[in-house]
Design brief:
The complex is a heterodimer of chains A (321) and B (520). Chain A has 321 residues and is an all-alpha fold. Chain A has helices at residues 3-34, 41-66, 74-88, 93-118, 122-140, 153-160, 168-186, 188-198, 200-205, 210-236, 247-257, 269-289, 296-316. Chain A has a domain at 41-245 and 261-266. The chains are: A mainly alpha (321), B alpha/beta (520).
């Protein structure tokens, strides 16, 4: 192993782990210089709150992608969770939270069981989940015509309250992140997720409970999508039915920009959070600039995603074949 | 597990009286179309090293997989420590104390060395969370015992194959195993690492651990194994002490041929030297690549087999890859029949008539899901088509000719290549390149990991091809093969030519050059 190769290897790892964070820092500096209104407490908490819904789902997605899978159902589960939360809120705060978690968790569980036990491709199974969850949501809302309003004040406060100017969703995100990070990095379960994504056959031979780990991963992803949907419903005071189309792709983009490899086996949660915030900052800057439609954000995000993948590919390429 | 005694306590003969620690009785395993195990009985005693040998397809891998819970038996039973055992998964077998080291390193390349080594038994700190500092410390200490000094935080995949194999070994053994099964453990090790491995095996044996040792390298078996079981066509044809078993007798048991026949034909199938007059067809001059090659030159005449000797990492494979255009060069040139071949381009090399049979059949050659026919035709398709339309009849004809000529044993041309034995896969690859009408054939470890019988056939084929006027470069870690197969041997050391042997090629001579004496 030569010096240059090691340096390149290290540069690749560093970029993968912290690239999103660095770019995030650069964008924040650029935003501060360009717009007086950017680096204000109000705007920053705004970005944080707006990003938290995506970030919560992305945390679950990080587990899925590190395990070598993909979960396309999260966008649909996010909307379904919102509708169920608004519907459940007429029976109290607990129902508003428990209903989406139970149903979305069940979706994730069933998908996980199918993927783990039959060996079917996660892409297909969760695509079916995407369609099924959206169909269920539409049938609950009369083809999307009915919008349930949040009836419960306490539940609405979870989405709208902002102690010290910071919205509750941000606190929830931080809490979810902390728990998830401990599980991913410091428990046997987390090690198993990495091992399965890295080399599933080897993991099985090393004694990793492959099926169980996969099931848990999709369960967690479903639960977090439901939680995020519920929080969003609380914030909007209603179960809006037209959201979440294509959200799964934004989530995957955040995870990949954050340095998690789509091939599985490597990645982490700090990157994912940086990736989610990065998408939020790009959106915010485009809004601030005015003149550009918010759809332009997708162009920028897409270009950035491509850049990340290319740079990573370049840095991780071996010096010799 | 109550009453579980420490692995070290039952050492020596005390444990042996208790009967075999692991046993298969009349084991039957049937796959669609094949009976892989046809009533095999196998028993393993405490503290013994038991060799398991046989040709590819004899049932060794299947037997191992049955013993370790990968496959379920279709008949018979497995007994572990005197009781009937039904392991539902490798995990269960591992928990019960049966550790397995597979031929291909079965670890997770993206994860760090420490994580790979300790996956599933990470040292825990407060709240049952993984203690990373302790993990690094323990991993470093464990590997040092195996003579490996690496930064355990690095991804395993960034290290050499030998090191990876030792990590796999260390991982398997630190789980206090009663039985350790090693499937071709030395195939990617260097001689020094092999010695370390043998020392580890001796230590395990002294502790009373039973070892199943699968290898094609007979010298190794005779060095470290106590008993041997020979499998042939899914049956155990012989079990007994290895000491006193004649080497030729062992080979004849594996092949199912008479001793006299083996003796008459020798251990390798090379006929001897060829007439190799005339101008070299292949000339490689001053091949250099940073860190890998430092000015290697080589010339091969038509009909000549030139062996490339040297240790793992000496630049043998890299030289072949460079000639075949698969390794970009910093300096140096390759020419065929006096015409320069543009470097760094595989298509250009193929166009010039240079083809490479790579070392790693699985990763770099065979497409397992494609049929034998398609695998053979793959590279030659452009030649077999007119205006981009492939002539099926022409493909069939070419494939049939090569299946016949190379004696490829397959159920038919449409059998997926992945289902063939290693030796036949190698022949399929050979056929693929021969279909290109090459002038120069580069063979990187053409007989590694294939059984004795197929090995002899491949060697005979190489001989034939040279006899037909092909220029052959042969890379092999098997010195015997190099000595008997080559007309000349060029020995590499640290990316440069260290010496060359012409008329009097011996194993000792090659080793002397590798070691830095003699012809340097």
């Amino acid at each position: 192993m030569t010096l240059t190769e090691t340096t390149r290897e290290r540069a690749g790892t560093l970029f993968r782990q912290h690239g999103a964070l660095v770019v995030l820092g650069v964008l924040v500096v650029a935003g501060t210089l360009a717009f007086d209104t950017f680096l204000t407490p109000a705007n920053l908490t705004n970005i944080a709150t707006a990003s938290s819904f995506l970030a919560i789902i992305a945390i679950g997605m990080t587990f899925v992608i590190i395990s070598g899978g993909i979960d396309l159902s999260v966008g649909s589960l996010f909307v379904l969770g919102g509708v169920l939360a608004a519907y459940g809120s007429q029976y109290g705060t607990l129902a508003a939270l428990a209903l989406p978690l139970a149903v979305c968790g069940l979706f994730g569980l069933v998908q996980g069981v199918i993927i783990a036990r039959t060996g079917m491709a996660p892409f297909i199974v969760t695509l079916a989940g995407l369609l099924a969850a959206r169909g269920l949501m539409l049938s609950l809302t009369g083809e999307g015509a009915t919008t349930y309003l949040v009836e419960d004040e306490t539940f609405a406060a979870i989405g709208q309250g902002s102690p010290a100017g910071i919205g509750y969703p941000v606190f929830v995100t931080v809490a979810v992140l902390a728990v998830a990070a401990v599980f991913l990095q410091r428990t046997g379960f987390g090690q198993n997720v990495y091992a399965i994504g890295g080399n599933e056959d080897a993991a099985a031979l090393m004694g990793v409970p492959v099926s169980r780990t996969k099931i848990i991963v999709y369960l967690v992803s479903g639960l977090l999508a439901g939680l995020s949907g519920a929080l969003n419903a609380a914030r909007l005071s209603s179960g809006v039915t037209i959201l979440g189309i294509g959200l799964e792709l934004d989530v995957i983009a955040a995870v990949v920009i954050g340095g998690t490899l789509l091939t599985g086996g490597a990645g982490g949660l700090t990157g994912t959070i940086a990736g989610a915030l990065l998408l939020g900052v790009i959106q915010n800057l485009i809004n601030q600039a005015g003149g550009l439609t918010s759809a332009f954000q997708q162009v920028v995000s897409g270009a950035f995603l491509a850049a990340v993948v290319i740079v990573h590919r370049f840095l991780s390429r071996r010096a010799a074949p | 597990m109550p009453g579980r005694d420490a692995p070290g306590s039952g050492a020596g003969t005390a444990g042996r009286t208790a009967g075999p620690v692991l046993e298969a009785r009349d084991a039957v395993k049937v796959f669609p179309g094949v009976t892989a195990l046809d009533g095999v009985s196998f028993s393993l005693d405490q503290g013994e090293v038991h060799a398991l040998v046989g040709e590819n397809g004899a049932g060794k891998s299947t037997l191992i997989k049955v013993l370790t819970g990968v496959y379920r038996l279709d008949g018979g039973e497995v007994r572990y420590r005197g009781e009937r055992a039904e392991f539902g998964s490798p995990l269960e077998a591992q928990r019960a104390g049966i550790a397995t080291i597979y031929q291909e390193v079965n670890l997770v390349p993206q994860m760090s060395v420490a994580r790979n080594l300790l996956l599933g038994r990470e040292p825990r700190g407060r709240l049952g969370l993984i203690d990373f500092a302790a993990m690094r410390e323990r991993a470093t200490a464990v590997l040092r015992e195996y003579g490996i000094d690496v930064d355990v935080r690095r991804p395993l995949g960034s290290l050499g194959l030998g090191v990876q194999q030792m990590v796999a070994l260390a991982r398997a053994i630190q789980a206090d195993a009663r039985v350790v099964i090693m499937d071709e453990p030395t195939s990617s090790l260097e001689p020094r690492e092999v010695e370390t491995l043998f020392a580890v095996i001796a230590g395990l044996k002294a502790r009373g651990t039973a070892i199943v040792y699968v290898s094609h390298r007979l010298e190794e078996l005779y060095r470290i194994c106590d008993r041997v079981t020979v499998l042939r066509d899914g049956r155990a044809v012989h079990t007994g002490p290895l000491a006193g078993l004649d080497r030729l007798r062992l080979i004849s048991l594996m092949l199912g041929r008479a001793v006299s026949e083996v003796r008459a034909e020798g251990l390798t199938k090379f006929a001897g030297h060829h007439d190799s007059a005339g101008e070299p067809v292949l000339r490689a001059e001053g091949l250099a690549r940073r860190n890998l090659l430092r000015g290697v030159s080589l010339a091969v005449r038509p009909g000549e087999i030139v062996g490339l000797g040297g240790l793992l990492g000496s630049g043998r494979s890299e030289t072949a890859k460079a000639i075949a255009g698969a390794l970009p060069l910093d300096e140096g040139r390759v020419s065929v029949n006096g015409r320069a071949v543009p470097g760094g381009s595989v298509p250009a090399a193929i166009e010039a008539g240079v083809v490479l049979l790579p070392e790693d059949r699985k990763a770099e050659g065979i497409v397992p899901t494609l049929s034998v026919r398609d695998n053979i035709a793959l590279a030659a398709l452009p030649r077999l088509s007119r205006a981009g339309i492939v002539s099926e009849a022409e493909v069939d004809r070419v494939v049939a000719a090569f299946v016949d000529r190379l004696r490829i044993k397959a159920a038919g041309p449409h059998q997926p290549a992945g289902e063939l034995s290693g030796g036949n896969q190698q022949k399929v690859l050979l056929a693929r390149w021969l279909a290109m009408n090459p002038k120069v054939l580069l063979l990187d470890e053409p007989t590694r990991g294939i059984d004795v019988g197929a090995k002899a056939e491949v060697q005979a084929l190489i001989d034939e091809l040279a006899g037909d006027g092909l220029a052959v470069v042969l890379i092999s870690s098997d010195l015997e093969e190099l000595v008997e197969g080559s007309d000349r041997v060029v020995v590499l050391r640290e990316g440069a030519v260290a010496g060359e042997l012409h008329d009097d090629i011996t194993e000792d001579g090659i080793m002397a050059v590798i070691a830095g004496g003699g012809h340097g």
